[in-house]
Automatic annotation (TrEMBL):
Belongs to the GST superfamily. The lineage of its organism: Bacteria, Pseudomonadati, Pseudomonadota, Gammaproteobacteria, Alteromonadales. This is Glutathione S-transferase N-terminal domain-containing protein. Residues 4-91 form the GST N-terminal domain. It comes from Agaribacter flavus. Transmembrane segments: none annotated. CDD domains: GST_N_Ure2p_like.
Length: 238
């Protein structure tokens, strides 16, 4: 197909959302942004749950998926695998190299992202400031930055070349700004971050819905927003 239809990206400006907007920009793939206002509770609407059963964004609909049929994909890591495989970019062909990319992508999904998310929740958004929880998650976030710093000591990227693993980690390293965690002690992470953040495609991905960042302030004052984010069905949202 000469001009494939654009991918529909279901998005809100969070570290997990940025993974996909950055990857789409890097791939040069046309896409439409469908805002899922997680503060208003859009993630619980029936039409979104049909795309993302877990009620989390990001998610995509690719109108031109396998066998030329539409496909929906939820979970940011699964979306990255799908897009990188489809376009044969940012995910190497060698099994050994793919395994390394998988390791660092899974590391982000199971460690850097969840620990960073909990650190932000307890230090910034929780109505009750619990010193143990703040110390526990911020310390673990810093430990993971140290792990990443060691990996980047003698290399430009997390694996042999720029990959979806780097893109997945970028937003969660940027989250250090919210946590007021300096990257100065992690010189190799800082070097890596500055290199990636200077890429025009990364900047474009990070600038999607930039004007909505002020919405974060509502979390501190709006009880409905807090309920939608942290209390609905007893589960936190992205």
């Amino acid at each position: 197909m000469t001009n494939p239809p654009p991918i529909e990206l279901f998005f809100w400006p969070t570290p997990n959302g940025y993974k996909i907007s950055i990857l789409l920009e890097e791939l040069g793939v046309p896409y439409n942004v469908n805002l899922v206002n997680i503060i208003e509770g859009d993630q619980f609407k029936t039409e979104f749950l049909e795309i993302s059963p877990n009620g989390r964004m990001p998610a995509i609909v690719d109108p031109f998926g396998p066998d030329d049929l539409p496909i929906t994909v939820f979970e940011s890591g699964a979306i990255m695998f799908y897009l990188a495989n489809k376009h044969q970019k940012f995910y190497p062909q060698s099994e050994r190299q793919r395994t390394e990319v998988n390791e660092w992508l899974f590391w982000q999904m199971s460690g850097l992202g969840p620990m960073g998310g909990q650190a932000i929740h307890f230090s910034e958004y929780s109505a009750e400031k619990i010193p143990y929880a703040i110390q526990r998650y911020v310390s673990e976030y810093k430990r993971l930055l140290k792990v990443m710093d060691g990996r980047l000591k003698n290399r430009q990227f997390l694996t042999d070349s720029y990959s979806i693993a780097d893109m997945a980690c970028l937003g969660w390293v940027k989250a250090s700004e919210i946590l007021k965690v300096s990257l100065e002690p992690y010189e190799h992470v800082s070097r890596w971050f500055n290199r990636l953040i200077s890429r025009p495609q990364v900047q474009a991905g990070l600038n999607v819905a930039q004007e909505l960042h002020a919405e974060r302030e509502r979390i501190f004052t709006d009880s409905t927003a807090r309920k939608n984010l942290f209390d609905k069905n007893g589960l936190p949202s992205n």
